[in-house]
Amino acid sequence: MPVPRQMTAHTLEAPKGWPSPHAVDYSAPFDATDLATLRAAGNEVYAGRCVSVQSDGALKYGVTGRQMPLFVWQNSDDPDVENPSGSLATDPHAWAAVAPTGVMNCLVAAGAYELATTEFVSTLAYVPNELLYAATGTTNATSGVLTNAGIGGAAWPAIAAVGVVSRGRTAAGVVGAQTIYPATGNNSHRVAEIFFWPTYLPGMNGLAEPTWA
Question: Domain total for the chain?
Fold first, then answer.
């Protein structure tokens, strides 16, 4: 049996703006191949991470090019996403599946809200109005995780940005072997999080000025 994960360890919150007539959400399954890769390493798709929808309609970690940023509400193993159901016809104790298709709900960066996520690089300092980025891939430590350091040394407009810091925070401090986060940077569950306004700032690499008549 795997080690239980605290339900508050990975979260996305919307302190301002949700729900409202301006809120925009999107539902889709996560890419099956990438999900299998994450699970082989003992991980799941975690709530609060940044994803984008692909041409086949599936979600993947991170944003590149002109993809629209999406922010995941649920973990991929939450019971309302998928669960290990059995056959009620043969097992009276089987768990009746709620959403066996694995569809996950996301908030779209085009919505009018402020978000807060636990999925960011907490060793960096953040100040209001800094741009945030999210790397693609299936590496649990960095994929879909927000950072103000750019991706591979690049920053907007060369690459896509996914948000703007709304409330600053200092870097995590370390005392001995224990990481101590500033109290003002923790949520109600004492888990570090970053506040930001999601935004759509596509990368400009590869775009050429149109020829005007």
Answer: 1
Any domain includes 116: yes
Question: What pLDDT, in 10s, does the model give residues 98-138?
Answer: 556 789 999 999 988 999 999 999 888 899 999 999 999 99
Tell me the β-bridge partners of 126: 169
Closest CA to 129 of 163, 170, 161, 169: 163
Q: Is residue 152 part of a domain?
A: yes
Count how many Cα atoms sit within 13 Å of the Cα of residue 126 in the half-sphere of its side chain: 31
Task: Decide if 76 is inside a domain.
Answer: yes
Using the Cα atoms of residue 20, residue 23, residue 27 and residue 31 in order, give the sign of their dihedral: negative
**Backbone region of residue 190 per phi and psi (left: phi > 0; alpha: psi in -120 to 50; beta: other values):** left
- Give the structural domain span for 51: 12-83+97-201
CB 74 within 8 A of CB 98: no
Q: Is residue 210 part of a domain?
A: no
pTM: 0.84
Q: Cα dist. 19→24, 151, 190 in Å?
A: 9, 31, 24
Residue ranges in the chain modelled with pLDDT below 70: 1-3, 21, 84-86, 96-100, 172-186, 188, 208-210, 213
User: Using CB atoms within 10 A of its CB, is residue 144 exposed (0-12), middle (13-18) or buried (19+)?
Assistant: buried
Q: What is the CA radius of gyration of the chain?
A: 18
